[in-house]
Amino acid sequence: MSSEKCFAIKSDIASKYAEMRGITDKEAKQRVNDVIEAMVLHLADPDVAGVMIRNTFTIEKTVKPARKGKMPVNGISYETPSAQKLKITTGKTLSEMLNEKRV
User: Which of 31, 44, 79, 83 is deepest in the core (most CB within 10 A)?
Assistant: First the structure.
């Protein structure tokens, strides 16, 4: 196994979708962009806790609290502000696919 990670990017997903549905790459890219845009808009909405695609995955907004630290070299104190982060949890179907035994 290669030590380099290979990530599927948006165009890879659109190409796979076009192949699955028998549509053009242009149409597939537009549909994928529309779904991603809808997910991002929901995640940016302060009234929404996250996005759930049942049995596949959940993207949940969490808050990383502010913290205080001290630089060991010179003893200067600093504080990092609280920030919103995203946490992904796999659903049952995706989890089973990821952990499927390959013979």
Answer: 31
Q: What are phi and psi of 61, to 5 degrees?
A: -80, 135
Nearest to 28 by CA among 41, 10, 42: 10
Which residues, 6 or more positions from 43, have their beta carbon under 8 angstroms from its beta carbon? 50, 51, 59, 61, 86
Cα(20)–Cα(48) distance, integer angstroms: 31
User: 23: which 2 tokens?
Assistant: 């549509």
Q: How many CB atoms lie within 10 A of CB 60?
A: 15
Nearest to 29 by CA among 7, 13, 45, 43: 13
For the ranges 40-44, 71-75, 84-88, the lowest mean pLDDT is seen at 71-75
Which pTM does this prediction carry? Answer: 0.74
Q: Mind listing the pLDDT tens digit for each residue in 2-57? A: 568 899 999 999 999 999 999 999 999 999 999 999 999 999 999 999 999 999 99
Torsions phi, psi for 62 (to 5 deg): -130, 160
